[in-house]
Every structure is written in structure tokens, then in C-alpha cells.
Design goal:
With about 325 residues, this protein is of the alpha/beta class. It has 2 domains: about 50 residues; about 250 residues, 2-enoyl-CoA Hydratase, Chain A, domain 1 (Alpha-Beta Complex), CATH 3.90.226. Helix content is about 50%, strand content about 15%. Helix 1 packs antiparallel against helix 2. The radius of gyration is 21 Å and the shape is globular. The model has no long low-confidence stretch (mean pLDDT about 90).
Length: about 325
């Protein structure tokens, strides 16, 4: 599969094309014919990639957060969860595959794990509805959180959605109520909950799985009340001004941690999580493990108290 390059990665794409061409020439010219040139170009690519990703603006980070080759929920499950057993359905209407969840072991600890799944290709994107859940997806999340509390299991969630599905059917089946119930269940959960925003954290569709004791975020992920395009359409009457909206909304990990909306930034490999998915998954696993260990010794009341204090503190100015 051909690599997917973002607009700001064009110089990198050009150099990597040259590397590919020289590699093909070396096959006919003989072993080692262009090794020095290829090594120099690869060194230059590494430098350009580090420089580009060190200075991303909010709109560029939005593009990285949406990168199609970024690790998805199924990748995190495969890399971090042993003995995963998927549990389907909300026991009321249907199974929504935009949110996938079940039981498994995370580094030896039995957990309930769930998250948004966008899909990797046309078939899976349609199956998972591009990660945009309907009411039954959030009701499945509530069912899984109920089970977690019943069996005293921590909850690990992964957030990556543009937002809840805005279709007529979803609204008819109580989309806003389902999101509110899932958010409420997270806030009242008596077992520890750790969330990681791995790509997009869009609106209520994200917070429904992120009312957690600890909210982590990957370095180039975003978390916002509305998409930059949606905000631009409302505020500026011009969806083309999404870049301006992204900057104004303070949606990057670096902005959010200053406001206490997220608790920890997980560093990504140079070039973003999509450039080295295995390293990104390991980094997420290490961070989640550390945060979870600090919470496992708390009583249910202490878990709820810590979570409540975390959310109450957001937006506090210190003015009586």
C-alpha cells in the first residue's frame, strides 16, 4: 500500500521517492552501487521529519490525528490486550460496531476495554461507520461499565471519533440521552477508568467514553467540543476557515494539558504514530499501565472522589 503523505510532508515524500528510485537502480547496477547516496537521503528524511513534526500548528495536528494509517482501536487491542473476548450489543436494539468492547487482560490485569473503531479500508470503515457511534453504541458502553463495576474490573478506553453519528435514526432513538447516560456512568463508576485519546476526540461522542479518572492523549491527537470545520461554519459562516478555528479552539494536547482537560501527553515516534505504530502502541501501554497501577489500590469511594475532583477542577480560576 502506498504511503499517505500530508501536505506539509511533501518534501519528505519527494526524498522518499528518490530513495525508492535509487534502490531500484541499485538492483541493476550491482550491490552497494548507491548505498552512500541512499544513506545520505535517508538521513535527510529523518531530519526533515523531526523538524516538521516539532513545529506543527493546530491544523496540521488535526491532519495527523486523522491520518488513515494511525493505529486504531483494533491495533491497540492486538498489541496490548491478551485473551480479548468481544461483547456485542446493547440488549435493547442492536450492536453498534463504531464502539467495540469486551473483556481481556492488560499486562496481567483483567480489564474491560472499549473504544471507537474507524476502520482501515472501505469495507471496515462502512462496517464501523467511521467511528461515529449511534445510541446503541453508547448503551453498549454503559452495559460494559456496569459489568466492570459488578466484577470489580478497571476500565480502559480508547477515544478516536469525529463525533457521534448525526443521522435521523440515531436522533429518533435518543442519541443525546444515550451519550449523557454513558458519560454519567463513567463519572459514577466505582472502579478505575483510564482513557487515551489516540486520534480525534470529537464532542460528546468522545466524552461518553472519556469521563475517566485519568485522560491521556497522544502528542499529535486533538480533543474538542466540535470539529474545526463545524466551528468555522458556525462562527465564520465559512467551513474553509477550519484552520483559523483549529488555532482559536485550543484543541491540541499541548493546549489541553495547560487547562487540566487532559492529564498526560504520550510522546509519539518522530513522524507521528503512523510512522511507527508498534512504538506508539507500546508507549500508550506503558503510560496506561503506570496510571492504572496508581489507581488500583483505591476504594470505590476514593475512585469516585478522585474522578469528581478532577472534573470539578476544570475551568477553575481561583476567584471566589
Amino acid at each position: 500500500m502506498a504511503a499517505h503523505y500530508l501536505e506539509f510532508e511533501r518534501p519528505i515524500a519527494e526524498l522518499e521517492t528518490k530513495i525508492e528510485e535509487l534502490s531500484k537502480l541499485s538492483e541493476t547496477a550491482g550491490p552497494g552501487a548507491f548505498d552512500a547516496e541512499i544513506a545520505a537521503l535517508r538521513s535527510r528524511v529523518d531530519t526533515l521529519r523531526r523538524e516538521a513534526y516539532a513545529g506543527l500548528d493546530a491544523w496540521q495536528k488535526t491532519q495527523v490525528a486523522r491520518h488513515p494509517e494511525r493505529p486504531h482501536f483494533v491495533d491497540y487491542v492486538e498489541g496490548l490486550i491478551e485473551e480479548f473476548v468481544e461483547l456485542r450489543g446493547d440488549r435493547k436494539f442492536a450492536d453498534d460496531q463504531a464502539i467495540v468492547g469486551g473483556l481481556g487482560r492488560f499486562r496481567g490485569v483483567p480489564v474491560v476495554v472499549m473504544g471507537h473503531e474507524k476502520g482501515h479500508d472501505t469495507v471496515t470503515r462502512i462496517k464501523h461507520n467511521f467511528g461515529m457511534a449511534r445510541p446503541e453504541g453508547y448503551r453498549k458502553a454503559v452495559r460494559l461499565m456496569d459489568m466492570a463495576e459488578q466484577f470489580n474490573m478497571p476500565v480502559v478506553t480508547f477515544v478516536d471519533t469525529a463525533g457521534a453519528y448525526p443521522g435521523v435514526g440515531a436522533e429518533e432513538r435518543g442519541q443525546s440521552e444515550a451519550i449523557a447516560r454513558s458519560t454519567e456512568r463513567g463519572l459514577t463508576l466505582g472502579t478505575p477508568m483510564v482513557t487515551t485519546v489516540t486520534g480525534e476526540g470529537g464532542s460528546g461522542g468522545a466524552i461518553a467514553l472519556a469521563a475517566a479518572n485519568k485522560v491521556l492523549i497522544l502528542e499529535h491527537s486533538i480533543y474538542s467540543v466540535i470539529s474545526p470545520e463545524g466551528a468555522a461554519s458556525i462562527l465564520f459562516r465559512d467551513g474553509a476557515r477550519a484552520k483559523d478555528a483549529a488555532v482559536s479552539m485550543k484543541i491540541t494536547a499541548q493546549d489541553l494539558i495547560g487547562y487540566g482537560i487532559v492529564d498526560r501527553i504520550i510522546q509519539e515516534p518522530a513522524g507521528g504514530a503512523h510512522s511507527d505504530p508498534e512504538a506508539a502502541i507500546r508507549a500508550v501501554g506503558d503510560a496506561v499501565e503506570e496510571e492504572l497501577k496508581a489507581l488500583l489500590g483505591l476504594t470505590p469511594d476514593q475512585v469516585r472522589k478522585q474522578r469528581a475532583e478532577r472534573f470539578y477542577a476544570i475551568g477553575q480560576t481561583g476567584v471566589a
